[in-house]
Amino acid sequence: MPTFLLFLSLWLAGFSSHVFATDITVSLDRSPVSVDESFQIIFTASESPDADPDFSPLEQDFTIQNQSENSRFEFVNGKSNRIIQWILTVMANDSGNLIIPVIKFGSDASPALKIVVSPSATVNKNAAYDDDDLYLEVTTNTEKPFIQSQVLYTVKLYRRVDLAKANLSEPELNDAVIEKLADDANYTTQVSGVTYVVIERKYAIFPQKSGVIIITPLVLTADTVARGRQNNSFFNSQTTQRRIVKSNAVTLNVQPIPATFTDSHWLTAEQIELTQTWSGDTSQMKVGEPLTRTVKLVARGSTVGQIPELNSTKIDPQLKAYNDQPVLHEEKTVSGIVASREEKIAFIPAKSGNYTLPAIQISWFNTQSKKVEMATLPEIALNVVASENAAPVPTMRVVEEAKQILPSKIETNNSFPLKTDVENVFWGWQFVAIFSTVGWLMTLGFWFLKSKFTAKNVSETVESPAGISLKSSVKKLKNACMTDNSEAAKTALLEWGKLQFNETSLGAIAPHCEASLRDEILKLNATLYAKNAEIWQGKSLFKAFGENNVRTKFTSRANVDGLQPLYKL
Predict the structure, then answer these.
(1) Could you tell me which residues come within 8 angstroms of residue 400 by beta carbon, excluding any fewer than 6 positions away?
(2) Phi–psi pair at 263, nearest 5 degrees
(3) 432: which strand partners?
(4) Domain boundaries in the chain?
(5) Class of CATH domain 127-254
(6) Rounded Cα gap, residues 219 and 452, in angstroms
């Protein structure tokens, strides 16, 4: 027995060490890199590994210039987690597709990772050499982007002098959306055999009209520490020199929507991923019970304003559908913007049978292959069966069963009218119920009309400092939508949004609205600079606007009168 227990304990020890191995990840501060540029390899662990790392396998393809270790605590959902990092500054020994090998931490290990290393950096035509010890270089990943597609704009500051203070201007471009990406990268590189310290910053630019556009030069204003000068006073600061450095301008020839793209909603991206999940079994849906479908589209190199509505197809009227508010998200990475849209829709079947949800097809333009592609979810077959819970019993059946049960109880109760006609008893109760219902409806109607009259008076008297009322802004919006005038609709929405929410842009107004109106406002915002103004149609926006006002007024009245607002399942 002791031998068996010893064997079992040793086996469990080995098993636990295998199961609970420390998870170690590896990442880079940027990729790709040049062969003459330094970069950082970061190893991260959530707890102490089995032993100290052995970085000697790296020396086959890389030269380790510096190595550091730090730890910190992160608080997530009230829990404290320890994060340990090993940061190595290295340079590649050669160009090509290299592998950062597996690094052992005793019995623990990090995974391997690929990195692309390009040959030595060459002098760029967009580098402005105001001085060889301090200059700016700007580049773009393409010179002929398509309208509303992503352009990666990279700024590199090369220096061989110390900076006491520096300020770099932001890129400026009319009719474009500009977003700064991630944090600045810092590294060293060699240009013509001279070592420079480089600060790299990236932007994502989305041009909103076609044609030739120019990104104006960036301006660096810096105080550099003067060389060869020493100040003998201990209390005086170091001697600095003010320097102003400019980059070159960058010209973009923005291409219009290609003729091969025939869909009404223009969507460009580098990669599209369309997925769906269900909250239950689609082959065993039950009458009256909801089943939720979640559809998500992830677009790399796009913005949330470009992603269209996902659940827009019509379905069988016996299959009730209830849409939740879409979840919109944008993530800024070193390789660009990653946008996503997630929609949840609950289906509640009214009767058993077989239903078919049509396929979801999203047409998009691949900026890498320069081709039109289609993201598709196939059609879904739903099989609906009767619910296990008993269905409501028909009224005539209740009457027949009551005839058999109630007479004996009536005869034994002297205080109850001696009637054996059960139908008369039921009609008496039905009369009381109908009378009560009519009275309730009359009261509700009176309350509704009174509230509507009060709300109307209030809304018509609210004016902006410029004398613009809610009523006039709504009238302008209706006229603009009926004539499909996108510019006039924008102006009317801005007037309305200023009065309602004190917001001055379509992007800021949209989050205050119901999901359908928010989507229509974002769609208008995205198509204002489209190739053809006729693409935008205003009727759907004004319809969503009317529904938004009805829901908002109803919720406001309910809250004022102390009633809880009503929601669909």
Answers:
(1) none
(2) -70, 150
(3) none
(4) 16-118, 127-254, 268-385, 398-459, 462-560
(5) mainly beta
(6) 58
| In contact, 322 and 345? CB cutoff 8 Å | yes
pTM: 0.55
pLDDT tens digits, one per residue of 54-64 = 999 999 999 89
AA letter at 20: F
CATH for the 268-385 domain, from 3.90.25, 2.60.40, 2.30.30, 1.10.1670: 2.60.40
For residue 287 the two structure tokens come to 């009458």
pLDDT tens track for 239-284 = 778 888 999 999 999 999 999 999 989 999 999 999 999 998 988 8
As a whole number of angstroms, the distance between CA 78 and CA 265 comes to: 43
DSSP string, 44-104: EESS--SS--B-GGGGGTEEEEEEEEEEEEEEETTEEEEEEEEEEEEEESS-EEEEE---E
- Tokens for 150, please give them: 């992503």
- pLDDT tens, residue by residue, 20-38: 578 889 998 877 888 877 8
**278 beta partners:** 293
Question: Which residues have a Cβ under 8 Å from the Cβ of 394 and sit 6 or more positions away?
Answer: none
